[in-house]
Design goal:
2 domains; Quinone Oxidoreductase, Chain A, domain 1; globular; alpha/beta; seven-stranded mixed β-sheet; 16 strands
């Protein structure tokens, strides 16, 4: 099969499409013929040598496609089904991928839309559940206009929470369309939140990792009311929970999001697509940082 890989660290030019042996699913896993695979910041961090040291490395943790092989013990999924989910091997940017966690693709979604969701959905839902966001509470989401932040806003609103979202002024109309009350980040952010949320703030989710944990702790009334997915050092220094996949994942959201999408309560991110063969261009577009939505690779 064709797959994305790099054999040395560096810029996008180190990426190549190579022939690798076809993978096969283990117990509880399925293999898909990949139709679309999401691109995340972790991909270019890996490529730059900022995460793992071994070489060569494959890429891709989320994909959507058609089941073409099932492992032992798999039930409820058949050959030919459309599914999306996660590749535990980090090798989803390929013609074939083994998914360790997966769910049926909501009927209204195409493969590119489905591939844009797993990482953002799971990360957002995990953070909200670890915070204990429920109906009637007020939650501040720092970095609300990115893919994870936008997912968190909509999932929190669907739970009945009041959401205050921080973002640049250029993204405030977008946040309003998702159901959040926007405030500008930067100096004075905490005062702006207090002015908006006169009854106070119950919880805070940090998605941006922009050094605002002390402000969020002050707003929410203590570090136990704050979770960050982006500031590991700050979490350690300030006693805040750092949310990571190995402390319990929220995979269930993949099977639940269809209802919110069909009802119009959840809007997908904008998607920019590239053929798998143009993965270097996809990385350049992602690192450039001016596209607010999700970058997805398409596989023929």
């Amino acid at each position: 099969m064709k797959a994305a890989r790099f054999s040395r660290f560096g810029g996008p030019d180190v990426l190549e499409i190579v022939d690798l042996p076809d993978p096969h699913p283990g117990p509880g896993q399925v293999r898909i013929a990949v139709r679309a695979a999401g691109v995340n910041a972790s991909d270019w961090k890996k490529r730059q040598g900022l995460m793992d040291t071994e070489l060569p490395q494959t890429l891709g943790y989320e994909a959507a496609g058609i089941v073409d092989e099932t492992g032992p013990g798999v039930t409820g999924v058949s050959i030919g089904d459309r599914v999306y989910g996660f590749s535990g091997a980090g090798a989803a940017q390929a013609e074939l991928a083994v998914l360790s966690d997966y769910a049926p693709i909501p009927l209204s979604l195409d493969f590119a839309g489905a591939a844009s969701l797993p990482s953002a959905l799971e990360t957002a839902m995990r953070g909200l559940e670890q915070l204990g966001v429920t109906g009637g509470c007020t939650v501040v989401i720092n970095g609300a206009s990115g893919s994870v932040g936008a997912a968190a806003v909509q999932l929190a609103v669907a739970r009945g929470a009041r959401v205050v979202g921080t973002a640049s002024p250029a993204n405030h109309d977008y946040l309003r369309s998702l159901g959040a009350e926007p405030v500008a980040y930067g100096d004075g952010m905490a005062d702006r939140v207090r002015a908006l949320a006169g009854d106070g703030v119950d919880l805070a989710l940090d998605v941006a990792g922009s050094g605002v944990l002390p402000d969020l702790i002050d707003l929410a009334g203590g570090p136990e009311h704050v979770v960050t997915i982006a500031d590991f050092a700050g979490a350690r220094d300030h006693g805040v929970k750092f949310s990571r996949g190995d402390d319990g994942r929220a995979i269930h959201v993949l099977g639940e999001i269809g209802g919110l999408i069909e009802s119009g309560s959840f809007t997908l991110p904008l998607v920019q697509t590239f053929p798998l063969a143009e993965i270097a261009e996809a990385h350049r577009a992602g690192e450039h940082g001016k596209f607010r939505g999700k970058i997805v690779l398409l596989v023929d």
